[in-house]
C-alpha cells in the first residue's frame, strides 16, 4: 500500500510539473503575441523607457492603416522582438532576396558614419565591380542602437551579425546587407541580434512587409510604406518600399533608412544610377531639423522575377518608365518621413524660383526650410514673412531685393521688395491654420528653381529629444 501511495504521489507530481510546463509555454506564447500586438498598435503601443511607460503621440498626418502593399516575387520579409533596447517591440527585421538580385545602395556622407554603413559601402562597391554574389542575399536591420561611433567593437559586431545571418539563411557573407538605427555611441548588443537570426529566417514570408516596417521604427509614430505598379514592355512591374525617419532628418544623401524592392530585372550599374538620380527630389529634398544622421542608408533591390524586359541601361523608354515609378515610391516615402517629423503639425513645401541655377534655388529653399525662426512661426500659425526674407538673405545666393516676391499658397504676400499692396495680415493668418502649406519665393535673378519639403518646429520636438535616452 505504501508503495502504491508513493507511486501515486510521483505520478501526481509529474502531472503537476507537466501542467506547469504547459502553462509556462502558454504564457510565453501569450507574451510573444502581446508583444506583436503592442508593436502593431503603433501610436498606442507603450514603449518601456527607464522603467516608466509613455504613450507615443500619433502624428496628425498618420494614415488610418498601413497601406496594402502588393507582394514582390523574389522578396520575403520577417521581423522579431529581440530586445535590442526595449522589451516587447519589434526591433530586428530581415528581407530575403532571390538569387541573382541586383542591389543598389546610397549612404550618408557623414564623416562619422556607422559601422553598418561602412560594411554596406564595401558590399555595394564589390557588387558593382564583380556583379551580384551567387545565391540569395539578405538585408538585416535593427532599431534601438545605431552601432555608430563604437570603434572596433562596432566593426566586430557587424561581422558577428553578418556571419549569423549568412549561417541562418545560406546567403554568402558578401550577400548580407546591414543597417542599424537608434542611439549613437553605445555598443550594439550583437548577441541579441545574432540569436534572433534563426527565427527571422524561419518567419520569412512575402506578406510580412508591415512587420518589417514596424521593426525599423525609432521615434516614428507610424510605419511608412509605398508602392507603384508600372507596365514595362506590356508586363507589370511592382515596386514597394518601406522607410523610417522622424528626427535627425536633413538631406546629405538619405538622412534615414529606406528599403525598396522590385521584381524588375535591372542591370546593377543602371539600378545604381537610377537610385542616385531619384534622391534629388525625394530623400535629398526633405528636412525636419537640419541634422544629418550617421546611419543614412537607402537600398534598392531588383529580383528580376517579373516577365518584363530587362533594363540594361539607365536610358530608353523602359528605363524611363521604371525610373519614374521608382522616384514616385521614394518621394512618397520621403513625404511620409516629413509628415512624421518629431512633434510636427504642419507639412510644408518650400519652392524657390528665379534663381541663378537649380543648385542656388535649392540652397535658398533649404535655408528657409531649416530656419528655426521660420519653423517656429509655422508652428504658431504666424504669417511672419519677414523671417523668410531673413532666411533668403543668409543663404549666400544671389537675390534681387527689388524684384523678390513671396507667396503663401495663392496669396501674394510681398513683391518688388516690399509688402504686396493687396496683402492683408488676416488672410495670411487664416492660411497658416492649414495643415499643409506652400511657401513660394521668386528671387528675380534667373530661371533656376528648386524645392524642399519640411515641417514646423514645436515644443513636442524638444520633449521627444530631451527624453530620447531616458
Key structural traits:
470 residues; alpha+beta; six-stranded mixed β-sheet; five-stranded mixed β-sheet
What can you tell me about this protein's structure?
The chain has 470 residues and is α+β, with helices and mostly antiparallel strands. 37% of the residues lie in helices and 23% in strands. It has 13 helices and 17 strands. The chain has a 6-stranded mixed sheet with strand order 15-14-13-16-12-17. A 5-stranded mixed sheet has the order 5-11-10-9-8, sandwiched between helices. A 4-stranded mixed sheet has the order 3-4-6-7, sandwiched between helices. Strand 10 (257-262), helix 7 (268-278) and strand 11 form a beta-alpha-beta unit. Helix 7 (268-278) crosses helix 8 and helix 9 packs across helix 11. The protein is globular. The chain starts with a helix and ends with a helix. Mean pLDDT is 88; it is low at 28-53.
What's the arrangement of secondary structure elements?
Blueprint: H1 2-40, E1 46-49, E2 52-55, E3 75-80, E4 92-97, E5 102-107, H2 115-130, E6 137-145, H3 151-169, E7 176-183, H4 190-195, H5 197-202, H6 209-215, E8 224-232, E9 235-244, E10 257-262, H7 268-278, E11 297-302, H8 317-339, E12 347-355, H9 358-370, H10 372-379, H11 385-394, E13 405-408, E14 411-415, E15 418-419, H12 425-432, E16 436-442, E17 448-455, H13 459-466
Parallel strand pairs: 6-7, 10-11, 12-16
Antiparallel strand pairs: 1-2, 3-4, 4-6, 5-11, 8-9, 9-10, 12-17, 13-14, 13-16, 14-15
